[in-house]
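User: I'm new to structure prediction. If I give you an amino acid sequence, what do you actually give back? Let's try with this one:
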Amino acid sequence: MAIFSYISGIAGLALSDDEHALFAERPPWGAILFARNVDTPDQVRTLTQEIRERLGRADAPILIDQEGGRVQRMGPPNWPAYPPARTYADMYLDDPEAAGRSAWLSGRLIGEDLFEVGINVDCLPVADLSFPQTHAVIGDRAYGESVEQVADLAASATAGLVQAGVLPVLKHIPGHGRASADSHLELPVVATPHGELADTDFAVFRMLNRLPMAMTAHVVYADIDPTSPATTSAKMVGEIIRGEIGFDGLLMSDDLSMKALRGPFEERTASALEAGCDVVLHCNGEIEEMRSVAAGAHVLTGEPLVRAKGALDHHSRIACDVGSLREEFTSLTNHQSALDGH
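Assistant: Good question. You get back a string of structure tokens that encode the predicted 3D arrangement of the chain. For your 342 residues, that looks like this:
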């Protein structure tokens, strides 16, 4: 069966008839879930099974954004609330070892939650650096201000996730932290010179370039390509992401429905794929947009198919005592909250 080069959102708690028909006609590589798709553990487990049965692939990637803090699609009362990345960043200033352990535990425990309901990909870690101008859309999702700290904590969270049997997606390559605008609402432009970006923002992603998947930033880096955001820039993908950063895993676009991008969805899809993205991501579950994205996608072949297959072989689940890990995580993060005066 052919697999097409897109990842699709869905509208509700189960596949609609229209979604069944679209996924049969032009099967996406995978699907992504949001809070609108989540009710109970049994419902999510049934949904992930339904999607994989429709796609005809037991290992089809099903993604979610489960970072902790503001970006957590599965939460109380059925799943724990996890703190944002800034918690580990604050901890790192006093005790890097405890911070790394806490980040690892967060990845491991989030991964356990996801694995139990059939979700095998988490859009984590956020490896964007924090700057004074960083927009609140990133804000406390960042692991800190220094290259080494962010790379260390991101790697720790990723290791926990992978050991739970869940694959990570590195975002937002090659760096969203300097953007002072929200790419969900408008197109950010970063004017920082290339050399400075190479030593900071890009350096974090270079240290994490062996991860299996990454998500592009809808950001213009004016000193490198002043006309196109990284998602649709062949220069940014080829020379920076693949070349300078050295990322050779599966590259997906950020959500095509974000307002940083313009034009019909079939054209957005084609532009991202022509620039060098392996697959595109469409999140909002609007069926007409989904059809347009599917029409602009093409059959996964060649190097993109090799990278897609390679990404799914990356995880290695290791058994653990989840209860003990939760107790340790609670102790560490409660201690940090006490230090912060919360």
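You can read the tokens as a compact description of the fold. Here is one thing that stands out. Residues 96-115 form the longest helix (20 residues).
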